[in-house]
Amino acid sequence: MPEPFLPGILGAHKRFEPRPSDVFLASFPKSGTTWLMALTFTTLNRTKHPPCDPDHPLRHRNPHDCVKFLEMAFSLSGDKGNVFAELPSRRVIATHMPYSLLPECITAKGSGRGIVYICRDPKDALVSMWLFTKKKMAAIVAGSNDEDKPPAATSFTIEEAFELFCDGRCICGPQWHHVVGYWEESRKRPEKVLFLRYEEMLRDPVGNVRKLAEFMGCTFSDEEEAAGVVEQIVELCSIDVLKNVEVNKNGTQEFVKNESFFRKGVAGDWSNHMTPVMAARLDKIVEDALQGSGFTFLAGPV
Fold this sequence. Notes:
The chain is α/β, with parallel strands linked by helices and 302 residues long. It is 45% helix and 7% strand. Strands 2-3-1-4-5 form a five-stranded parallel beta sheet, with helices on both faces. Helix 4 (70-77) links the parallel strand 2 (68-69) and strand 3. The longest helix has 21 residues, at 122-142. Residues 20-294 form the Sulfotransferase domain. Keywords: Transferase. InterPro entries: P-loop_NTPase, Sulfotransferase_dom. GO terms for molecular function: sulfotransferase activity.
């Protein structure tokens, strides 16, 4: 885990007070997190904020401003207590923590707190993380007065990122271990953990939003279905719409520009950055690591 997040993880374990109605969104970085945030927030709050409303929060705010990260919020707040205490129910809270690092108050049997996990093909997750990291590095350089820093973040190559990723030396550790931790728990307790695949969501976003709503206990009514509310949610949360929202074109987060969260939103883009030899090697590493788990990643572009 990034060193600045470690105090936040400890703070979450010590001070976070969950509610039975909380929804937690878990993911390995760059696996469709922003999209899941938008879909969940919009689905859960559709009565208060109809997706067709021109003043909908997502038309004026980045999804990361609507759904906060558990570990990041506690890292930024220091020892100021439970930073989520003032939020009204139902709260939607994100995390990149592996299942094994989640606070016990969230994972305990009978707690009733739902976790929605989204996974993505490792090759696409790697490429997306690499490009995102380069943007972060460039932003840091651009905002620094240190003349000794390089003029641009071009020195971090895909080859370097690939070797680190294959060794599991990346944020949140080996991606495949992160995924399997949540997948195994979803098999044991499907009522507790909803496991989604990014590629399947691209194929059938409407069906997966219905599945998401059912898991959260807010199934769409016949009237909503007839009015096309599900399709409206999918449209509002689409990358084409969100990337053209003014705040997502010019706004920033603590560490990166908002535009960095909206690149292509497709599956299979890894083939534009990795060689077939690299892909085969990573596939083999993942295949070996998943032996006996019963889990496999979906292959191929959508």
